[in-house]
Design a protein that fits this description.
344 residues; alpha/beta; binds S-adenosylmethionine; binds iron/sulfur cluster
């Protein structure tokens, strides 16, 4: 298949599937389409980041070819992330290309994770192209705190983005990182707000990824403690709903909404892991918490045939580690790369 072959991927009864060495089927690919971002969240990036030269970043055609090969091999869900996916030039061309797999039935879901600063401009097109739901990252509803946490962001743009997405018919899930110093006292309010506007909400523990400017142990807040606190005024009912990821869901009976807790540090979720991550430079990480990496860009730019590319992907999946290696109290991050490189 050429990079711009628009024909649907043929679903056959012998559709190959990506099974790792521990018997887990890999059906979910996250693709970071850029390392750049219009915000500088304190837990994610250093204030002064050096971004990648353009030549190192995969072109839209290369991203399409790689992602489409994964779909060909049985991936059913694609999530575009970053950096901020909506700041990547031509991003909607890529969404449009990838949406052919939704139409062919090869893909169940095409989605993205965004900071929503530019969502208002793109929401209608995303919905038109078959994106049904998106994740929006938002840690506070206080404009000043938002500006401080993102080093300059404008909360009003994010709220306008969420509104536009809902108006376009997209389902929105709000993700917030729980930060001991900054939003700990506001989390219940954030959940109440999200549920009131009809959004699911997920809280995330900080993960030790990449060197940032602050001490992470200062900001680490255990979601077990948050859950205990919520239980003192809310009724939380465990839900069977599972995504194969690290989130555990409850229903908040008082709001009627769904609430997820992503606790990579206090729970081991690796046994059900169905996902791998592709960076914008074509590096495949089969585990968020390890430094394992396969350079698919070298394979691609070396002129690999479709068969050779598939073989490289199979080899990488076969070597997917059993589990991660995070420790919040370690002096250095367990993994040197930033979340903005891996894509969360
Ligand atoms: N820019 C987009 C956004 O913010 O939604 C997509 C990329 S961002 C890296 C993806 C997610 O990772 C965001 O929800 C962000 O809050 C989260 N994140 C970034 N750094 C993190 C860290 N050190 N620990 C936990 N979550 C982190
Ligand atoms: Fe940008 Fe998302 Fe990282 Fe914030 S979390 S700096 S919005 S990539």
């Amino acid at each position: 298949m050429t990079p711009y072959d628009d024909s649907p991927v043929q679903a056959t009864s012998t559709q190959p599937s990506l099974i790792d060495g521990f018997g887990r089927a890999v059906t979910y690919l996250r693709v970071s389409v850029t390392d750049r971002c219009d915000l500088r969240c304190v837990y994610c990036m250093a204030e002064h980041m050096t971004f990648l030269p353009k030549a190192e970043v995969l072109s839209l055609e290369e991203l399409d070819r790689l992602a489409s090969t994964f779909v060909d091999l049985g991936v059913r869900k694609l999530r575009l992330t970053g950096g901020e996916p909506l700041v990547r030039k031509g991003i909607m061309t890529l969404v449009e290309r990838l949406s052919r797999h939704l139409r062919s039935g090869a893909l169940d879901e095409l989605t993205l994770t965004t900071n929503a600063t530019q969502l208002a401009q793109h929401a209608a097109d995303l919905a038109r192209l078959g994106v049904a739901r998106i994740n929006v990252s938002l840690d506070t509803l206080k404009p000043d705190l938002f500006r401080a946490l993102t080093r300059g962001g404008d909360l009003a743009k994010v709220l306008a983005g969420i509104e536009a997405a809902q108006a376009a018919g997209l389902r929105v899930k709000i993700n917030a990182v729980a930060l001991k110093r900054d939003n700990a006292g506001e989390l219940a309010e954030l959940v109440t707000w999200a549920h009131r506007i009809g959004c699911d909400m997920t809280l995330i523990e900080t993960m030790p990824l990449g060197e940032i400017d602050e001490d992470r142990t200062d900001q680490y807040l255990s979601l077990q403690d948050v859950r205990r606190d919520f239980s003192s005024f809310w009724t939380l009912t465990d839900l069977a709903y599972a995504t194969g990821g690290p989130a555990r869901y409850v229903r908040v009976e008082e709001t009627g909404g769904r609430l997820g807790f992503i606790t990579p540090l206090s729970h081991n979720f690796c046994e059900a892991c169905n996902r791998v991550r592709l960076t914008c430079t074509g590096t495949l990480h089969t585990c968020l918490g390890r430094d394992d990496a396969s350079d698919l860009r070298a394979v691609l730019r070396g002129g690999a045939s479709d068969g050779e590319l598939r073989a490289a992907i199979f080899a990488a999946i076969g070597a997917k580690p059993q589990g991660h290696d995070f420790h919040i109290d370690a002096a250095r991050p367990a993994v040197a790369r930033h979340m903005s490189t891996t894509g969360g």
